Amino acid sequence: MIRVTRGVTTAVALLALAGASPGAAYAQPSPGPASATPAGTPEKDTGMPDGWRITGSGAARHLVWTADERVPMGDARVEFRADGRLLGYPVPQPDGRSFRLPLGDERFREGTRLRVTAGGRDLDGTGPARSARTAPPAPPAARAEAPLPANPVDPGRPGRFRTVSGAYDLAPVRLPGFAEPVEMRAAVVGPADAPGKRPVALFLHGRHGTCYTPGTEDVNGAWPCPSGMKPIPSHEGYLKAQRLLASQGYVTLSISANGINGQDHRAEDGGAQARSSLVRLHLARWADWAAKPATAPAAVRRIAAADLSRVLLVGHSRGGEGVNRAAVDSLYAPPADQDAYRGPVRWKIRGNVLIGPTIFGQNPAPDVPSATLLPGCDGDVSDLQGQIYADGTRGVSQGAALHSSVYVVGANHNYFNSEWTPGQAKAPAMDDFSSEDGTDPVCSPGTPTRLTAAQQQTVGATYIAAAARLFVDGDDRIRPLLDGTGRRAPSADPARVITHAVGARRTPAFLPGPSVSVSGAGRLCAQIDPDAAKACLSPEEPGRSPHFAYWETSSEPGRDAVAMRWTRAGTPLAVRSTRPVSLAGATSLAMRLVVPPNSTGTGLDVAVTDASGRRAQLGRVRVDGLPGSERTASHWAREIRVPLGAAARAGLDLQRIGALELTPRTATGRAWLLDAWGWRPGTPAVRPAALARVDVGRLTVDEGDSGVRTYRVPVRVSGKGNGQVRLFVPTPGTDEVTSRLVTVRPGRQDIDVPVEVKGNDRYGYDETHDAFVKAVRGAVVGSHRGGVTARNDDPMPKVSVTPLADDVAEGEALTWRVTLSTAADADVMGGFEFRPVAGGAELSTADVDRRWVEDTFFFVPDPPRPLSQPVVADAYAAFSVPAGRTSTEVRVPTVRDAVAEPAESLRAAMFTYDGNWERVQGPEITGTVRNVP
């Protein structure tokens, strides 16, 4: 979870926040608050919001945001945005509060709105003011939508088998790019008396704190755990779901990934490939044990034998992205240098369950069925980007696999895992949904729509079991719970769970994009665009849509919808295809329609016209919005089906349908059409297609001392068959991103991105040139992002400190000059840690300027404290020597009082950071403040 609060997270945990690629990991971290007074201001930044500043110049210009408090560890990536446009993923800094992003030649015009977000949620409170936005209507207190009809088969009911629990802890493993070994630990629950070999369900938790100190609120993101701390047992948080599955005859294991969580902040993909490797290493061990049962751990020997030809993967948060990558890697081998597993694939992934998942790469496995649980009150991955596991598969492969989205009203992110739930967890835990500025009408605890932890965990177990029954067992009676038919599992009551789906042999009919035109009461809109006139949902409007989750670019071609707006009933919208589409063999037309949250009774008449002009009215539909607030991503599509019988009776040629017409029957309203499909019941068999696989790598080179050298972004294409991807290349220092469609073939260099690197002989930051890809058709993407990093190969200047005024009267400022041996192309930063004085009275927080105390120690302590005893650990007075300059001044401004007292002094040790982010200790300074009678 990511929320700016005081509390338990240390600087080590901050370093584990994944927001940046390794190419953006800079040698000099931000010092946090600007406690030093520089000799000159590096760039005029008057008018920037509180907490924001620009440092450096030229190629070393950086944008820095510093929070008022430490930012806890979570699954969503931290992003910097300007007027809604993604600037990039900043690097977390050791002070626990600051994030830094290279700007290059980027310039901000007057009035630019800067934002820092994570999973679509503002961390800095600078989103559009509520007074400037139209708030969504409040959820009606009196109206409760009627429960969906019960499905005849309820997967949430326990089975007939007795369950046995255990654990194993094997030797740790090495993963590429990770310095420390990663644990091979799992909680095992299985049937003790089930006959034959049993299907397997593997669980992978998400990104959470890694270590805690029992009996305290102390949590961090270190790995391995420091002395006195214990690993947080996140992998033990799914026991309820494991026991349910085991009672139904499944062998289950939930694996620990703390070693990845503690190190994935430097992984280009946020740790997706590492998690995939870990999943497949565990599966490989189970394949070994299946072949030689006597070699298995005791916990494995006590349960039924495993059938690895029937495997379900379950991933929570970043664990969801990890099991998605494992499914891709099991079908299309990843590059060997990125993968820790080298052996054959001795298992078959039948389906994935993804709980509140991230999908940074927006690269779902198209031919592996999936069910994605979207928590309506998610306070971590709050943009519900996991919706892309369904939307992102459209048109990529054959469309046989069912991809279901399961919206759970009132569920938060953490409570699906009992070890992340207060009152159940061994380590400190919290509710990730924040409503600190008041009661949220949908998600605050105690509101009618908010689920309790027990209710939420029951929902999770029930729908995991539903996916297992459908994807692994092939029980089509379960499908109506997942495919948008509109049925409920009584065992999950009173939760409100709504689904829609793509795939399962739906026939593509009207998919907004270049192949359709729109007329009447609507327009073709861009799902991702900062321009309100083009965007489907303006950035200034309240609420968000999971369908419109941002990716790497602020505008993204190839992602469209149809936006409807009307002010009187009877104003039709027509969507026409440039070529006739076929609905032959379908029983219904299935549309995914979004209406505003909390709206009720949006009525639409639905009609189709064939290529010869014959028209048939199919029926009238009613669409209600989901419960939502400004904090929720509730602009989510409902699946609406209308039978095609009327079209057949009217003599339409269902093989040549040319237009879809929607006519509003309510006086005013809005709606968004995501797509329309020909639908028929059934769950088809899924046979993975021969797809090309694309992996973008990163080449790191020394910048050199002079001259210009040309390098190329490393891209590998493997797999089988030709495919098409969209290539994106940002122009460094600008907001320009070029994109083009590229046909790729295994073994060929169809993607060519040259990069020029200029040499110099001054210390500076590494410089990155990025490229990223997304699958369009006939391809899958493993590592979606890479580029060329020009590494600084010049030593950091030597740093010295000299006193300018180290013996002053109260009311004056103690002052020192920090000097570099030579100018640098990057800010050189560090700080002064206060230490107890050797003798006499020590300067306290009451003796210095109040603003200085706030900037240095985060708040003014009451009662006052000596400077060497800060309330917040690791507080220090920071300094920064701006790029291009050779010195700065550090001041400690004192205040004059009327108290007669002896001379007081301070003692502090200077430090800087080396290229490995390690502190380098420097000389000590002392200062004396004398009383003024």
Write a short abstract of this structure.
The protein is mainly beta. Helices cover 10% and strands 34% of the residues. The chain is built from 10 helices and 51 strands.
Explain what the structure shows.
- The protein has 933 residues and is mostly beta strands.
- Helix content is 10%, strand content 34%.
- The chain is built from 10 helices and 51 strands.
- The chain has a 9-stranded mixed beta sheet, with helices on both faces. Strands 22, 24, 25, 27, 30 and 32 form a 6-stranded antiparallel beta sheet that branches.
- β37 and β38 form a beta hairpin.
- α2 packs across α8 and α4 (272-291) crosses α6 (318-331).
- The longest helix is centred in the N-terminal third of the chain and has 20 residues, at 272-291.
- It is globular and about 100 Å long.
- The chain starts with 10 loop residues before the first helix and ends with a strand.
Number of β-strand runs: 51
So what's the overall shape?
A: globular
Mean pLDDT: 89
Separation of termini?
53 Å
Helix content: under 10%
Q: What kind of sheet is the major sheet?
A: 9 strands, mixed
Helix and strand content put the structural class at mainly beta
Strand proportion: 25-35%
What is the gyration radius calculated from CA atoms? 29 Å
Strand order of the largest sheet: 10-11-16-12-17-18-19-20-21
Helix tally equals 10
- Give the low-pLDDT segments: 1-46, 127-136
